[in-house]
Design a protein that fits this description.
By secondary structure, the chain is an alpha/beta fold. It contains eleven helices and 13 strands. The strands form two sheets. It has a seven-stranded mixed sheet, with helices on both faces. A six-stranded mixed sheet has the order 8-7-9-10-11-13, with helices on both faces. Helix 2 links the parallel strand 2 and strand 3. Helix 5 runs parallel beside helix 6 and helix 9 runs antiparallel to helix 11. The longest helix is centred in the N-terminal third of the chain and has 25 residues. It starts with a helix and ends with a helix.
Length: about 350
């Protein structure tokens, strides 16, 4: 029996060592060996999160911290983010930045991290409730949606035609980003938003329907195909982001409807701005992921140095990192920049 116990103990140690190595290999690190700061994004393929990672990496070295980065396999992958937080707690991180894949489901794990003394900052996507983190650095997603809604309303009013709207949202989890962008667009267009905690009311006759895209091109194409089957008269498409918009355009082109439908979106990535130039997207709201990440790393570095927690200028814990409407078809009463400006300021 002693020999058996010894064999089991060795096997356990080897298993734990292999698990620790796997966690370390899943995380990309950068910095100069200082305090550990984590960045956990929804995915590592969306250009928005790629740029966010670059911003965090650029900020880590000058601030004397070591950055460890993690990502979900796809939008909605909460379990990978839970594992990432647990890895950072085990690594003795001072804090981390996270774009939650599930704003509610991630909260218990964030609570555990904060109880251990880690500073937690949400980037881009607020948690539910927002008070689950120490601060949120993000686009005002309602305002970003409202800008493209206002632009679309002005365009359709000028053209004198009624709108039949398809809304291509993110995923079934309905994160706060999904809800705020969707409702902001509807508000900007002049449609009641209904339940403040869910994507917009489908009962308005101008809305043909909603479908989910998982924030990617394939999802956008499939969602657009589904909605066109239900209502071929759709002439205005809201998309959660620009990859979904590119997929929607593919479906519209395949149906011979690309010149009859206006697409509006949110992101400000370089491919998306290029699609504004090509008239694939009528207007987009640009956001600034590099700024989010740089501010986030700086906040955790300051916390590690002297315990200071971030606060916005008005004393609140939400820091608006800005949004800018980009279009080559400006509308009266809606402030915008053209795609030439967009190409100088885009990301990805």
């Amino acid at each position: 029996m002693p020999g058996l116990r010894r064999t089991l103990a060795i096997g356990t140690i080897l298993t734990l060592t292999a698990f620790s190595a796997a966690c370390a290999n899943d995380a990309a690190s950068s910095g100069d060996g200082g305090q550990v700061v984590g960045l956990i994004t929804k995915t590592d393929t969306n250009p928005f999160f790629v740029k966010m990672k670059q911003g965090a990496q650029q900020a880590a070295g000058p601030r004397g911290v070591t950055l460890q980065t993690f990502a979900g396999k796809q939008d909605g992958d909460n379990e990978a983010q839970v594992q990432a937080i647990e890895s950072l707690m085990s690594a003795g991180a001072k804090g981390f930045l996270i774009t939650p894949n599930d704003s509610k489901a991630i909260v218990p794990t964030i609570d555990k991290a904060r109880q251990q003394g880690l500073l937690v900052i949400a980037l881009d996507t607020p948690t539910d409730p927002p008070s689950a983190v120490d601060a949120t650095f993000a686009t005002d997603n309602y305002q970003a949606g409202k800008l493209i809604g206002q632009w679309a309303k002005a365009k359709f009013a000028k053209d004198g035609k009624p709108a039949k709207i398809a809304l291509l949202d993110d995923n079934a989890n309905q994160t706060s980003v999904d809800v705020k962008r969707d409702q902001g667009f509807l508000d900007g267009f002049g449609i009641p938003v209904g339940d403040p905690d869910r994507i917009g009311d489908e009962h308005d006759p101008r809305i043909s329907g909603h479908d989910v895209t998982n924030g990617n091109e394939d999802g956008g194409r499939t969602a657009m195909e589904n909605l066109l089957q239900k209502d071929p008269s759709i002439n205005l498409v809201y998309t959660i982001n620009e990859p979904a918009a590119a997929g929607a355009y593919q479906a519209l082109s395949a149906a011979g409807k690309e010149k009859q439908v206006t697409i509006v979106s949110i992101d400000g990535g370089c491919p998306g701005v290029g699609n504004v130039t090509k008239k694939v997207i009528g207007a987009t709201s640009m956001q600034f992921p590099l700024k989010m990440a740089e501010l986030g790393v700086d906040a955790v570095a300051r916390f590690a140095q002297d315990g200071t927690k971030p606060r916005a200028g008005d004393g609140k814990d939400f820091v608006d990192t800005g949004a800018q409407l980009v279009t080559d078809d400006p509308q009266t009463g809606v402030e915008s920049k053209d795609s030439a400006w967009g190409k100088q300021n885009c990301w990805g």
